[in-house]
């Protein structure tokens, strides 16, 4: 591969190619479950350079692993152990190119960090509503490639709904320019939707036009104890009936989450004593005055008989409530190894799913502790299982745990992946839980866009 590397070095500047030990950080996934090896890491600075690198890979038959912030939770941006693939990092293509306040759009490079995009929107008195814990490190290209979600999906949708146009370098090295900031464009197939959620298997997203919204001036936040998930769903419907789409977030938190936070993050505020079995974190947003919106939320909670509701009286208290929700993944990391699931079921099915899946797991593993939390408002739960042994030895039980969880998800008409993607972690399960026709159609699309099978091999599909 010396000829390939020589040509690669010719295409990019001195900082554009990493080899040897310098590739190590790019070859390990965020959860430290997948350790790969790379022929090199290419770090282009423009779409033209991306296209040149992809053309070079196509000529030499070198596999390409696109990578943004390397925050994939399913091994979707990690190469295999062969050392034969090129990691194509978009980290140097990180600019916000344009904010169009009149059109409510923002155009960014794929390597732009989510937090920087949010800040650029705020500077123009606009909101880019995508929000999740890795906002300071994840990049827009990766968020698009996985159709990422987050806490504001209930009101604004996933990345798919936030995307108006894309620029993509295809496996041939051609650049498809679909950077259109249009809400209405009924001129044939909507090609951008093929690339959103494709996990880099069809091409390399290089730029995007994203939706913006008016910046809310009023917020109301409450942490509400509820008896059970059924009561949480009832509360969601009641609040939505009262205030409509001003419900921005509606997060479910179970008692084991609070117990884990108290143990692993004792410096956080812990507002409940005693701990409730379940709680929901509700946030409303709108124009106008926060005090008015908070009073409206308080009235709704009173009417619905929520006797243990804590309303944030200022932005600091609201941030404290959100810190609890946002630190659950960190508390889990500190506790040790768990078997993680990112699943979705119809909102009304969540109580039955939680009851049935928890019962089956307890029958199979009497020491199982279930950390269930997440985006109740859009049916997406993070459903994670701890056992007494919190070392990597727990992964020996993963197939059985997954079978129980995913079978319950299927029984309730759900999905085994809601917002994290398939990557390497779930590709064997995809073949079981998507029907043969769906898989055949997806593979045909893959063949059309990537006939040489060089784009992110080993991800999504079983080879």
UniProtKB/TrEMBL annotation:
Domain FAD-binding PCMH-type positions: 34-215
SUPFAM superfamilies named in the record: FAD-binding/transporter-associated domain-like (SSF56176), FAD-linked oxidases, C-terminal domain (SSF55103)
Alphabetical UniProt keywords: FAD, Flavoprotein
Keyword Oxidoreductase: no
Transmembrane spans: none
Annotated signal sequence range: none
The keyword Flavoprotein is annotated on this UniProt entry: yes
One of the Pfam families matching this protein, by short name: FAD-oxidase_C
Organism of this sequence: Iodobacter arcticus
Name of the protein described by the UniProt record: FAD-binding oxidoreductase
Family per similarity comment: Belongs to the FAD-binding oxidoreductase/transferase type 4 family.
């Amino acid at each position: 591969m010396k000829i390939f590397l020589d040509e690669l070095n010719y295409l990019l500047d001195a900082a554009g190619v990493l080899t040897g030990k310098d590739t190590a950080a790019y070859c390990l996934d965020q959860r430290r479950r997948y350790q790969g090896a790379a022929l090199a890491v290419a770090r282009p600075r423009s779409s033209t350079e991306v296209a040149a690198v992809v053309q070079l890979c196509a000529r030499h038959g070198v596999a390409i692993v696109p990578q943004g912030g390397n925050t994939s939770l399913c091994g979707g941006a990690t190469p295999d152990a062969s050392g034969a693939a090129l990691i194509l990092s978009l980290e140097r293509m990180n600019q916000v190119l344009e904010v169009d306040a009149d059109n409510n759009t923002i155009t960014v490079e794929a390597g732009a960090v989510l937090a920087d995009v949010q800040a650029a929107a705020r500077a123009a008195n606009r909101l880019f509503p995508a929000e999740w814990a890795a906002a300071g490190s994840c990049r827009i290209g990766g968020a698009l490639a996985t159709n990422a979600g987050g806490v504001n999906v209930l009101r604004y949708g996933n990345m798919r709904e936030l995307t108006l146009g894309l620029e993509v370098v295809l496996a041939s090295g051609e650049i498809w320019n679909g950077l259109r900031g249009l809400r209405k464009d009924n001129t044939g197939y909507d090609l951008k939707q093929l690339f959103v959620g494709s996990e880099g298997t069809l091409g390399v997203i290089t730029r995007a036009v994203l939706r913006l919204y008016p910046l809310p001036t009023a917020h109301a936040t409450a942490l509400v104890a509820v008896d059970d998930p059924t009561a949480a769903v009832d509360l969601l419907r009641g609040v939505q009936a009262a205030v409509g789409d001003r419900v921005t977030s509606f997060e479910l938190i179970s008692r084991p989450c609070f117990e884990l936070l108290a143990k692993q993050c004792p410096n956080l505020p812990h507002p409940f004593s005693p701990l409730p079995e379940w709680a929901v974190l509700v946030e409303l947003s709108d124009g106008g005055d926060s005090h008015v919106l908070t009073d409206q939320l308080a009235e709704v909670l009173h009417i619905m008989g929520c006797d243990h509701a804590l309303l944030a009286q200022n932005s600091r208290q609201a941030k404290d409530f959100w810190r609890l929700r946002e630190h659950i993944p960190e508390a889990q990391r500190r506790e040790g190894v768990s078997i993680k699931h990112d699943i979705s079921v119809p909102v009304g099915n969540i109580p039955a799913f939680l009851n049935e899946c928890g019962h089956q797991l307890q029958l199979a593993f009497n020491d199982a502790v279930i950390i269930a939390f997440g985006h109740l408002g859009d049916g997406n739960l993070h459903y994670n299982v701890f056992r007494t042994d919190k070392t990597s030895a727990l992964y020996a039980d993963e197939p059985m745990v997954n079978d129980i969880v995913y079978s319950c998800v299927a029984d309730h008409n759900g999905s085994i992946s809601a917002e994290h993607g398939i990557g390497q972690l779930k590709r064997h399960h995809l073949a079981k839980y998507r029907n043969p026709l769906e898989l055949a159609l997806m593979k045909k699309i893959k063949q059309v866009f990537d006939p040489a099978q060089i784009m992110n091999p080993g991800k999504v599909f079983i080879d």
